[in-house]
Amino acid sequence: MRIAVIGAGSWGTTVAALAARANPTTLWARRPELATMINTEAVNADYLPGHRLPYGLRATSDLAECVAGADALVMGVPSHGYRAVMEKLAGSVPASMPILSLTKGIEQGTSLRMTEVISEVLPDHDESKIGVLTGPNLAKEVIAGQPAAAVVAMADGDTAAALQSVFMDPTFRVYTNTDVIGCELAGALKNVMAIAAGMAKGLGFGQNTLAALITRALAEITRLGVTLGGRPETFAGLAGMGDLIATCQSDQSRNNRVGMGLAAGKKTDDIIEEMKMVAEGVKSVGPILDLAGGQSVEMPIAHQVDQVINHGAHPREAVLSLMTRDAKSE
């Protein structure tokens, strides 16, 4: 299959590298100089320093050139720019082309998942061929060849299987799943929980605290995800529990690093500026709470993350609020 990957950040570049090992793959980079670096030096020093890319991977800063002749489209654009890029691609994407989203976020203003944004921008597209690639996938570990696993979630089982074969190899095991809603929501919701985990670590709390937080975060994610149409078992799998554990525990996680910075007294904008990368949980927490409120679903951890990020609360206040909630059964 000929693969077009849109977005040359750390994860977009890694996914393009996975595909390029056995498939003609083109990667779109917003900045021409980054595309040139990838083509001439086989590296993306801005996001994956020290890691060689397959020589079969080609990069371009021209969107139309990237998707021309492609058999499948992979979207790795941050949520805040996702719709604008899809609108530019609209005339170049056949209605039957499989589209995979890598973005684990919720659109601000609409509270739509990224696959819903695709369907809204491309109303005639075959929805059964719109899906996600998700799981516990820290880009630097995957690009280094450390064993990892992921899920391709798509309603069309045959297309999902074809995409599974594009990315799977001895170091990257890929499963298929038809629960697009559950897999996509799990990926977006866990980012908010990773901010909470980073705050806990930044405050000096240990493994008991982190274990309790991850466990209750999983309950919270599952509660909203199932209400919105996901399947319960999805949240116990790679897209749910797996991704939550990886993101909450790893300092490589951008959202985790945001939480640690907040615990250190830094402002959110300053943390993001230092990282020079997007942390989807920061932008998604508001829309997620809007979704939860619309369904009368209680999300106390997400609420406290929102209080810290958007309302000036200190992480210690957030912890106290969570620990002093009314006693109840598990």
Notable traits:
alpha/beta; N-(1-d-carboxylethyl)-l-norvaline Dehydrogenase, domain 2; 2 domains; 8-stranded mixed beta sheet; 11% strand
Describe the protein in words.
- The chain has 330 residues and is of the alpha/beta class.
- The protein folds into two domains: 3-178, 3-Layer(aba) Sandwich (Rossmann fold); 181-323, N-(1-d-carboxylethyl)-l-norvaline Dehydrogenase, domain 2, CATH 1.10.1040.10.
- Helix content is 52%, strand content 11%.
- The protein contains 15 helices and eight strands.
- The chain has helices at 10-20, 32-41, 63-67, 79-89, 114-121, 139-143, 157-167, 180-202, 207-227, 238-249, 254-263, 268-275, 280-294, 300-311, 315-323; strands at 3-6, 25-28, 57-60, 72-75, 99-101, 130-134, 148-153, 172-177.
- The chain has an eight-stranded mixed beta sheet, sandwiched between helices.
- Strand 4 (72-75), helix 4 and strand 5 (99-101) form a beta-alpha-beta unit.
- The radius of gyration is 19 Å and the shape is globular.
- The termini are far apart.
- The model has no long low-confidence stretch (mean pLDDT 96).
Secondary structure layout plus pairing:
Layout: E1 3-6, H1 10-20, E2 25-28, H2 32-41, E3 57-60, H3 63-67, E4 72-75, H4 79-89, E5 99-101, H5 114-121, E6 130-134, H6 139-143, E7 148-153, H7 157-167, E8 172-177, H8 180-202, H9 207-227, H10 238-249, H11 254-263, H12 268-275, H13 280-294, H14 300-311, H15 315-323
Parallel strand pairs: 1-2, 1-4, 2-3, 4-5, 5-6, 7-8
Antiparallel strand pairs: 6-7
